[in-house]
Amino acid sequence: QSAIFNFQSLLTVILLLICTCAYIRSLAPSLLDKNKSGLLGIFWKCARIGERKSPYVAVCCVVMAFSILFVQ
């Protein structure tokens, strides 16, 4: 199944997108800061979520990793 129809895969993709955008913004802030609106603004918003909610995102990543490794 694709990630759209499987809820756990969709959550995994969203978590990876948030973590990747936050990491890219930490390396090159100007890359994401110039696109705050429009379609590419999604990446800026994901980076902001990753920065501001980083403890919660980290816990979600650990829970998702545990779920993928040991539950499936």
TrEMBL record:
Q: Which Pfam families match?
A: DUF1242
Give UniProt keywords alphabetically. Golgi apparatus, Membrane, Signal, Transmembrane, Transmembrane helix
Q: What is the lineage of its organism?
A: Eukaryota, Metazoa, Chordata, Craniata, Vertebrata
* Family note: Belongs to the KISH family.
Q: What does this protein do?
A: Involved in the early part of the secretory pathway.
Keyword Membrane in record: yes
Which cellular compartments is it found in?
Golgi apparatus membrane
Instruction: Give the species.
Output: Melospiza melodia
Q: Which residues cross the membrane?
A: 6-24, 54-71
The way this protein sits in the membrane is described as: Single-pass type I membrane protein
Report what the protein is called. Protein kish
| One Gene Ontology cellular component annotation held by this UniProt entry | Golgi membrane
Report if keyword Glycoprotein is assigned. Answer: no
